[in-house]
Amino acid sequence: MSDILERLRAETRPAHEAIERDLAWETRVATLAEYRALLARFWGFHAVLEPALAASLDDAPFFDPRRRLAHLAADLRILGFDDAKIQILPCPRLAPPRDRAEAFGALYVLEGSTLGGQVIAKHIGRQLGLTAECGCRYYAAHGRETGAMWKAFRQRLAEEATRGEADAIVISATATFDAMRHWLCATAVPALDEEGRGPVAKVSPRG
Q1: To 10 degrees, the CA torsion angle through 11, 43, 124, 132?
Q2: 46 dihedral zone (left: phi>0; alpha: psi -120 to 50; beta)
Q3: Is the distance from CB of 183 to CB of 207 less than 8 angstroms?
Q4: What is the pLDDT of residues 46-57, one digit of tens each?
């Protein structure tokens, strides 16, 4: 189990550090307006990637508890969006995973983010007064089950790697970090105007 994790941590480190550097998440959650804009970008990313992962994995009992698109929608509703406005948020163009190995590489990025999300959720609670029940469901992710969910994912990841798919997993994870960075760090999308009336602009990611 440790071999594939060690490879992923080592070989995706530059891409992982690049997104942490460029996103500068503390500044992106400093105000409600900036936080809404960030969640709007995450919604677009998950709206494209989650259905593609579900199709590639074809394992609803394993994948469905890991879906977070509904968490983003719940947060955005609390922060002023209705369903119609959520559905017209911009989405990136992402190449879907071609097989299970590529799906596991992408899911490594999403599941790994739930670990750091626990820290970010606490920061958002202090900064903006939001909780998992009110506006911070996405970052709270699996809550108390985060450790157990990560352990279960690691076990499945190791099984996939033993099929000789380690290279494909690592390449996919790196590509997912890069795609997420380009999308999240594109010119910001104002999530709501100053009177809370809904999206006022859309942009496409750079590059």
Answers
A1: -110
A2: alpha
A3: no
A4: 999 999 999 999
